[in-house]
Amino acid sequence: MSINVGSIKTADGSAIVKIGNTTIVCGVKAELATPKPEEPNLGYLVPNVELPPLCSPKFRPGPPSDQAQVSSNFVAEAVANSGCLDLRDLCIVPERLAWVLHCDLICLDHDGSLLDACITALVAALRTVELPHVSYDTDTEATVVSKDKKSKLKVNSSPVATTYAIFDDEIILTDPTNEEESLSSGIVTIVVQGDKLCSVHKPGGSPLTEMQLQGCISGASKRAEYINKLVDTALASLKT
């Protein structure tokens, strides 16, 4: 795996993650909006996974594929379950003004373990985001954005996803390629934050025993330590 952060200067935060031949570019754009009436003190995090035809022959031009939509939903669920962001931190004035973080995850090359690369790229990009200071006058409803004063986005945790391919209900392979995924009898993606299990994505296929699942979770936790160290190293190089 290789990670590069802060490479897209037009975005408020960005990262490029490569796992094997799978490459994901994540750009975060911050905009101001009105909070939802049912959640007046929360901001928004909107991840969107794009799988264009250039990343794999199995994707065609047109509306987002089912896999792209499922991937977007899973990334949003994993980030929410991990407590990566407290959406209350994105609220500026309850019921009036909040930040919306549009997170575009574009796949340049799809060769397996897509969700692993997406979640790592999103977390790395969020950790580079700096939001300008915003003042809001409740009387005149005037908004002033001070781009000279910026504060880093508070990221509370760094979830990590690990994908496994299952063969013949017995052999479990970590970090499969696209070809290995297509030949497998089942795939499972596990998202952990430290020792905490955040999400499990298993779209059918061969079942896992409780012992096999526990082994996958244990392996995912060990791999998460390694990946978080890579992210920290990439962020440290950005500061220097």
Number of helices: 4
Q: What are the low-pLDDT stretches, counting only 5+ consecutive residues below 50? A: none
Order of helices and strands: EEEEHEEHEEEEHEEH
Query: Mean pLDDT score, rounded?
Result: 89
- What can be said about the biggest beta sheet? 6 strands, mixed
Shape: elongated
Supply Rg: 19 Å
Query: Strand content of the residues, in percent?
Result: 35-45%
> What percent of the residues sit in helical stretches (DSSP H or I)?
25-40%
How far apart, in Å, are the first and last alpha carbons? Answer: 21 Å
Per DSSP E runs of 2 or more residues, the count of β-strands stands at 12
Return the structural class.
Answer: alpha+beta
Outline the structure in words.
With 240 residues, the chain is α+β, with helices and mostly antiparallel strands. It has four helices and twelve strands, in the order ββββαββαββββαββα. The strands form three sheets. Strands 1, 2, 3, 4, 5 and 6 form a six-stranded mixed beta sheet that branches. A hairpin with a 3-residue loop joins β9 and β10 (171-174). It starts with a strand and ends with a helix.
